[in-house]
Amino acid sequence: MTDTNGLEPVATFCGECNCGCPQLFVDPDAPAEQRIILTDDFGQRVQMSFDQFSNLVSDAKSGKLDGIALP
């Protein structure tokens, strides 16, 4: 499992089980290009900048990511 000490939790995706659901954090001590952290339930993590995360959110809001969520 990924160490989340010192990270500020933002969101948990699912959260209805005890399986180590994916989570979104902010690491206030990380360099700017690694401040946003997304963890998965396999102990992996992706780090990105606020700008990269903002682009991801913008794409999601505009519907660009809708196709990947379909079975």
Explain the overall architecture:
The protein is α+β, with helices and mostly antiparallel strands. The protein has one helix and four strands. The chain has one helix spanning 50-62, and strands at residues 8-12, 23-26, 36-39, 45-48. It has a four-stranded antiparallel sheet with strand order 1-2-3-4. The longest helix has 13 residues, at 50-62. The radius of gyration is 13 Å and the shape is flat. The model has no long low-confidence stretch (mean pLDDT 89).
Care to count the β-strands?
4
Instruction: Give the helix tally.
Output: 1
Strand order of the largest sheet: 1-2-3-4
Integer average pLDDT: 89
Largest sheet: 4 strands, antiparallel
Query: Assembly state here?
Result: single chain
Strand residue content: 15-25%
Task: Estimate percent helicity.
Answer: 10-25%
| N- to C-terminal distance | 28 Å
Q: Which terms summarize this structure?
A:
alpha+beta, 4-stranded antiparallel beta sheet, 1 helix, 4 strands
Furnish the topology, listing elements before pairings.
Layout: E1 8-12, E2 23-26, E3 36-39, E4 45-48, H1 50-62
Antiparallel strand pairs: 1-2, 2-3, 3-4
